[in-house]
TrEMBL record:
Positions bearing 4-aspartylphosphate: 55
Gene source species: Paenibacillus mendelii
The protein, known as: Response regulator
Entry's localization field: Cytoplasm
This protein's record includes keyword rRNA processing: no
PROSITE patterns reported in the protein's UniProt record: HTH_ARAC_FAMILY_1, HTH_ARAC_FAMILY_2, RESPONSE_REGULATORY
Occurrences of domain HTH araC/xylS-type (ranges): 248-347
Keyword vocabulary terms for this entry: Cytoplasm, DNA-binding, Phosphoprotein, Transcription, Transcription regulation, Two-component regulatory system
CDD domains registered for this protein in UniProt: REC_YesN-like
Response regulatory domain residues: 3-120
Amino acid sequence: MFKIITVDDEKMIKRSLRVMIEGANPDFRIVGEAKNGQEAMDIIHGDPPHLLITDICMPIMDGLELIAEVKRNYSHTQIIVISGYSEFNYAQQALRYNVTDYLLKPIDPEEFKQVLKKIYEQHISNEQRSIDRREQMWKIVDNGEQIVNWIWTLQENHLRSKLEAIRTELELLCIETDLVRDIYRDLLIYTTNRLGERSGRSYPHTMASEPGPTPSMKELHDQFQGASMSLFKEIVHLRNWGQSQHMKKTIDYIQANFSNSEISLLHMAEYASMSISYFSRFFKEETGTSFMKYLTNLRIGKAKELLAIQEHKVGDVALMVGYTNYHHFAKAFKKFTGITPTEYRQMHEERVL
């Protein structure tokens, strides 16, 4: 239903408008008729219409005051102004309020019908646009979370692949470029806000709506990709700036928990909120060795201390330093020391004797 309110202090005019409106489209419904602006506002407050059709010269509150009030409070309501030749100066003032259209009395039925048709078609288009936007919202959240994850974990290849997948999906939907711009803008806002929550910093939304012609699909995607990669570089810079301190905390954690058999490269990369490749690279830069060599060195060093204590069985020592499989422990021990755990214990016993 397309709701319309008519405002005129002449009953015959309102009656004539009703006949033309109801005959133009079965979806049109007059939900209120008023004889002045104040009466019209009372109706509008109770049930805002899609379209307001108003005269200019009326008692108590004239059409110009009414238009200004509606524009302030109900900006989505379309407005048609009707006036006589002698009121043309008032009509010009009404146009400054960006009314949808104006018609001169006596109203030409065919012209009026065409104006109503144009307004109604725009209304249907806006409604469909709203439906499309609601249908896209879950995709914005889902895609946004994936983009945030790839940026935060510094996985550039995954990020670029995701951006390309979004481009392909939007092209296949065959939706208006205005909607594509809105989707990209909302996606960027979501991404920057979520990254801001994680990093404790704010990032600019560099793809806000601007007046003028809508860019092409390619231009919109290039803008979004550029903004996303800028965010990626920001996070890389942030990580590099705080990397040494952050990696030191990670190393402290490893040193305190190396006997936990669950400690692994994947586990520590997740602990540091990095991809495995970035974690491995930064870990080696900080320690001068790979993660596995570092972890194994800690475990074997502790194992040598424990093997020197006679009451610990060799198999128990393996478990105490994080190995659930004795064979793996023995293999690692021999690789680092050149002898087996049993041989090491025997040599230690001989030195004690």
